[in-house]
Amino acid sequence: MKAVRFHEVGGPEVLKYEEIAQPIPGVGQVRLRVAASAFSAADNGIRAGFLSIPVVLPHIPGYDVSGTIDALGDGVDGFAVGDAVIAFLPMATDGGAAEYVIAPADALVAAPTSVPLADAAALPSVALTARQALFDDGGLKAGQRALIVGAGGVVGKYAIALAKRAGAYVIATASPRSADAVRQVPTRSSTTPRPTSWIPSPTRSTSCSTWLPSSRTSSPPWCDSCVTGESW
User: Fold this and answer.
1) Per the omega criterion (within 30 degrees of 0), is the bond before 61 cis?
2) What is the DSSP secondary-structure string of 163-176?
3) Helix, strand, coil percentages, rounded to 5, for the chain
4) pLDDT (tens digit, 9 = 90+) per residue, 85-140?
5) What is the average pLDDT value for the chain, to the nearest integer?
6) What would the pLDDT profile of 165-184 be if each residue is shown by its tens digit?
7) Strand (E) positions, 55-190?
8) Spatial distance between the Cα atoms of 169 and 163, rounded to a whole number of angstroms
């Protein structure tokens, strides 16, 4: 199979496109036919040698991956060949910049059907970051308030959706550039909907507005007051 690997740490020039043997899944593992692999700053840090993840060289980067299950190892339940999945792979093992990759079955979840499978490779680490911040570190529970600063970023958008799904009251800040994108974050849930306060991040302009939820109407929030200050 074809794969991108690096045999030494360094700049992008150390990446090599090579022919290597197709991996075989072991106990509790599956083999994925890769649809796409996403790359992040951590991938760059591992390749450059300044992020202390103990990889074995040569190494295939790309720990965020989407694909279809191609083969099952012993002891794998709940998945079948042909299933479309996404995964956050163990960062010290070979990643998804290849035609096939081995993944622990417990690192897989079903891929979303609302976006192309290749695009879904961008989901795992950003959504996991949002979940860890809200629930593992923050201990967020239904009825509590969550302030999400920089909600226009990919982690922030997932944080809004996850917090709303958990029944939290969400207060989100973002720059005018990303305001519309934040307002459009899907927040559908099987729980009772909770309100969201929308606060555009301050800029040097004095026309920024604070949006507050209405208890009297289901229409979009209205402009309640103004926020001024330097850019965040």
Assistant:
1) no
2) HHHTT-EEEEEE-G
3) 20, 30, 45
4) 999 999 999 999 999 999 999 999 999 999 999 999 999 999 999 999 999 999 99
5) 82
6) 999 998 888 888 877 877 77
7) 64-72, 84-88, 100-104, 108-110, 145-148, 169-174
8) 8
Yes or no: say if 43 and 62 are a contact pair by the CB < 8 Å rule. yes
Q: Residues with Cβ < 8 Å from 146, sequence gap 6 or more? A: 134, 138, 140, 159, 163, 168, 169, 170, 171
Asked whether the CA dihedral 136, 138, 139, 142 is positive or negative, the reply is negative
For 25, which DSSP code?
A: -
Q: What is the dihedral of CA 222, 228, 229, 232, to 10 degrees?
A: 10
Task: Give pLDDT, residue 211.
Answer: 32
Binned at pLDDT 50, 70 and 90, residue 154 comes out as confident
Q: What region does 216 belong to: left with phi over 0, alpha with psi -120 to 50, or beta? A: alpha
- First-last CA distance in the chain: 47
| pTM higher than 0.85 | no
Whether residue 158 has pLDDT greater than 70 = yes
The number of residues in the chain equals 232
